[in-house]
Design brief:
Shape: globular
Domain TonB-dependent receptor plug: 69-182
Helix content: under 10%
Number of strands: 41
Family: Belongs to the TonB-dependent receptor family.
InterPro entries: Beta-barrel_TonB, Beta-barrel_TonB_sf, Plug_dom, Plug_dom_sf, TonB-dep_rcpt-like
GO molecular function: siderophore uptake transmembrane transporter activity
Number of domains: 1
Distance between the termini: 28 Å
CATH class: Mainly Beta
CATH architecture: Beta Barrel
CATH topology: Maltoporin, Chain A
Number of helices: 5
Keywords: Cell outer membrane, Membrane, Receptor, Signal, TonB box, Transmembrane, Transmembrane beta strand, Transport
Structural class: mainly beta
CATH superfamily: TonB-dependent receptor, beta-barrel domain
Oligomer: single chain
Radius of gyration: 26 Å
């Protein structure tokens, strides 16, 4: 699904209401995207007036015909692939953090390719066990991994991105996990992206990248696209190196009525993480708490998609996909029970464990969608009906190895790995949805939508020694949506909308939900009492518009309320992996978004402000022994009104683009984020206080030596600020000389996910036709 300017069928009932040429979602949100700072050539403006086009936005998993921009009741944001290329962002998450409204990142893993995305207070994270609140799609295929709903941003082929669209709210048509929004990625094709290029770059932290891209047309009906890249990075800190290998290709057939596309991709990445470190370690911000901690991500996927116009008013679209995913995680962990006397009367003298888990998932499925453009009661009407089925088989194994710490906090194994868990899961998700947009007149329209979801998760113990692991869980619900749009002039749109969504508990949550049998995440399953599905209800009111030919703006106010929200409750302090999942009642994310973009000659300016008030709305108790406000049993009480950790309330972003000459462009991103609470401080009472906010400046520049040769440079964190994006409370076991292991002198501290210091990179790109 994607935003696009599409050739309209002859009898399309939605007529363009002006000759203005908009950049997909720019009129929706005034996104801070660098490419918008370039003025449209006058010749293009003339052509556009002669041949007006309909600007459509995809509001369902499959694009279909799309919905006219003026009839979308949401503050949608759209990023174009060339915007990411122009800023030379190292990762997708980095670009979104710098340029999109209401998005921030948390670096809990200590690796820039494994950051969490927070959008309006909802998370899409690669960390297994993190409650997810966003659904992510790649060319109409949901890429939240079925085992845990995690999102591996490093597996999305960045060079192949045509657009990224952020759909806010609980839009039910996108199915499960769309609590706070959907992130929808569409890829390039050879007809729209002819020619090729090769690019190399290098710079700070030993980062070296190489990339090739080629697209073109074969005959009159076929086109092709291919890209591949490699990246090696030593990491800015100790033990957080990265190796990424990505490839993506697409072959398409198109004629007047039909488009058929076959795409495939693969990735093989190794990502080391430095974890969070306690405040007492800030004498050397480059050190890791313990190591090794490595994720090996591998994926291969194949997608067949197509659409066909039976008539100018009837279109059928669909897709089929297969995806093979493998993750191997090796992590070093302190033995929380070191020095304690066991049930057998023996003192536990094992300092550490190396935990190793492997997840292998084969997922497949398909979608089918029918779009009808017609008249209803004499008025324009668009009806979309769709169905989707997604299925996955996952195999999870986990083993543990006893270990001890060296003076550098590396773990050295004692003996071999002993199997702990061997489980298989089966996920089945069915969905039937509709969306109907009815135009009362040229100014008013109404959108009705809904989706019925049926989800089943079957968990089975393969080891024969954990029978409590076996379980069969089914969830279902119909989620509705309604929205109204008012367009009194072509340059102004106001809207109001209400929608609902559902997230069913994942297999990992269901298999770790027993307070009497806490498990180690992401490495162990014990039992699976039922959890309730999370239900979201979102209200949003907003407006967007254009002033003259150079300025766009948007504003939105929203409130999303969750019932039966799921939280991982630690059994031995927030930083411990030992605990269980539970429904914690109600939570709320509500806020304000303001954005604008304008062009003054060679200077483009884009700015945004977002306010997010994320709070618990129920009272509940959790174990957080490292919290200074904990009682004698290590428990804290979370009250209604306490802020949810990790979510900043205020974020300001400014993007400046200056075309110094026709060949030379200079840009800068300025980002401010205020303070956050650390995880484990859900009651907001810990004496360590909040994690401080920060202000960052990034620079980028591009110079076109010739039409084919381009050189570029980027500077991240220009002022070399020392800052943190994430915090968690925990127990520090390394208070011996030079931070060596000392279980007899543990301290409760704030552990921080640190931001990278200043980095500089340069590169060049050579293009050909």
């Amino acid at each position: 699904m994607k935003s696009m300017t599409r050739k309209a069928p002859p009898a399309h009932p939605f007529k363009p209401r002006s000759a203005l040429r908009l950049c997909f979602g720019s009129a929706l949100a005034g996104l801070t995207a660098s490419a918008w700072a370039q003025a449209e050539p006058a010749s293009e403006a003339v052509v556009t007036k002669e041949l007006p086009s309909i600007i459509v936005v995809g509001t369902t998993p499959l694009l279909g015909v799309g919905t006219p921009l003026e009839k979308v009741p949401a503050n949608v944001q759209t990023i174009r692939g060339r915007d990411i290329e122009q800023q030379h962002s190292p990762t997708i998450t980095d670009f979104m953090s710098n340029n999109t409204v209401s998005i921030t990142t948390n670096d809990a893993q200590g690796n820039s390719s494994q950051t969490d995305i927070n959008y309006r207070g909802f998370t899409a994270s690669p960390l297994l066990g993190t409650p997810q609140g966003l659904s992510v799609f790649l060319d109409g295929v949901r890429v939240n991994e079925p085992f845990g709903d995690v999102v591996n941003w490093d597996l999305i082929p960045q060079a192949a991105i045509n657009t990224i669209q952020l759909i806010p709210g609980s839009n039910p048509t996108f199915g499960l996990n769309t609590l706070g929004g959907a992130v929808v990625v569409s890829t390039k094709n050879g007809r729209s992206n002819p020619g090729g290029n090769a690019e190399v770059s290098f710079g700070s932290f030993g980062r070296k990248t190489a990339q090739i891209e080629q697209g073109g047309v074969i005959g009159s009906n076929l086109d092709y696209y291919f890209t591949a890249n490699v990246s090696n990075d030593n990491g800015w800190a100790d033990h957080n190196a990265s190796k990424l290998r990505q490839a993506f290709g697409k072959l398409r057939y198109t004629d007047a009525d039909t488009t058929i596309s076959l795409s495939m991709g693969a990735a093989d990445n190794t990502l080391d993480g430095s974890q969070t470190i306690p405040r007492s370690f800030l004498d050397n911000r480059h050190q890791a708490y313990t190591f090794p901690d490595t994720n090996e991500n591998q994926v291969g996927y194949l997608t067949l998609s197509g659409d066909h116009y039976f008539s100018p008013n009837v279109q059928l679209s669909g897709n089929l996909y297969y995806r093979h995913y493998r993750n191997k995680n090796t992590s070093s962990n302190v033995n929380d029970n070191f020095g304690e006397v066991g049930d057998d009367g023996v003192i536990d003298d094992i300092q550490a464990f190396n935990d190793q888990s492997v997840i292998v998932t084969d997922s497949y499925g398909g979608s089918l969608q029918l779009t009808l453009l017609n008249k209803l009661l004499g008025h324009d009407n668009q009806l979309v009906i769709g169905a989707a089925g997604d299925f996955a088989n996952s195999h999870f194994t986990q083993a543990a190895q006893q270990a001890f710490f060296t003076d550098t906090r590396a773990t050295v194994g004692i003996g071999g790995f002993e199997p702990q868990t061997d489980a298989k899961t089966r996920n089945e998700n069915w969905g039937i949805y509709f969306e109907n947009t009815f135009s009362f007149n040229e100014q008013w329209s109404m959108t009705l939508a809904g989706r019925y979801n049926w989800s089943k998760a079957v968990i089975g113990d393969e080891s024969g020694v954990q029978p409590l692991l076996d379980g069969n869980h089914t969830f279902s619900r119909f989620n509705p949506a309604i929205g109204f749009n008012w367009n009194p002039t072509p340059a102004f749109t106001a809207y109001a909308t209400y929608n609902e969504g559902m997230r069913s508990p994942t297999a990992i949550e269901l298999a770790c939900a027993d307070p009497a049998a806490p498990c180690s995440l992401p490495n162990d399953f014990i039992a699976d009492p039922d959890l309730q599905p999370v239900i979201s209800k979102t209200f949003e009111v907003g407006a967007r518009g254009r002033i003259g030919n150079a300025t766009t703006w948007s504003a939105a106010v929203y409130s999303t309320n969750l019932s039966n929200d799921i939280q991982f409750v630690s059994s031995q302090g927030a930083a411990s992996t030992l605990g269980y999942f539970q429904n914690v009642g109600k939570t709320r994310r509500q806020g304000l978004e303001l954005a604008g973009r304008t062009q003054y000659g060679p200077l483009g300016i884009a700015a945004s402000y977002s306010y997010v008030n994320a709070t618990y709305r129920s009272t509940w108790t959790e174990s957080s022994a490292s919290n200074s406000s904990a009682d004698a049993d290590g428990n804290i009480t979370v009250h209604s009104g306490d802020r949810i950790p990790g979510i900043p309330s205020n974020t300001i972003k400014l993007r400046l683009d200056y075309a110094a000459t026709p060949k030379w462009n200079v840009g800068t991103n300025l980002t401010y984020r205020n303070s956050i609470f650390a995880r484990g401080d859900e009651d907001n009472q810990d004496s360590n206080g909040k994690i401080a906010g920060y202000f960052l400046i990034d620079l980028d520049t591009t110079y076109n030596v010739t039409k084919q040769l381009q050189v570029f440079g980027t500077v991240k964190n220009l002022l070399n600020k020392k800052y943190s994006t994430f915090g968690i409370l925990g127990e520090n076991f390394f208070n011996g000389p030079n931070h060596t292991f000392d279980s007899g002198a543990t301290t409760n501290e704030q552990f921080l996910g640190l931001g990278a210091p200043r980095g500089v990179w340069v590169g060049m790109r050579y293009s050909w036709l």
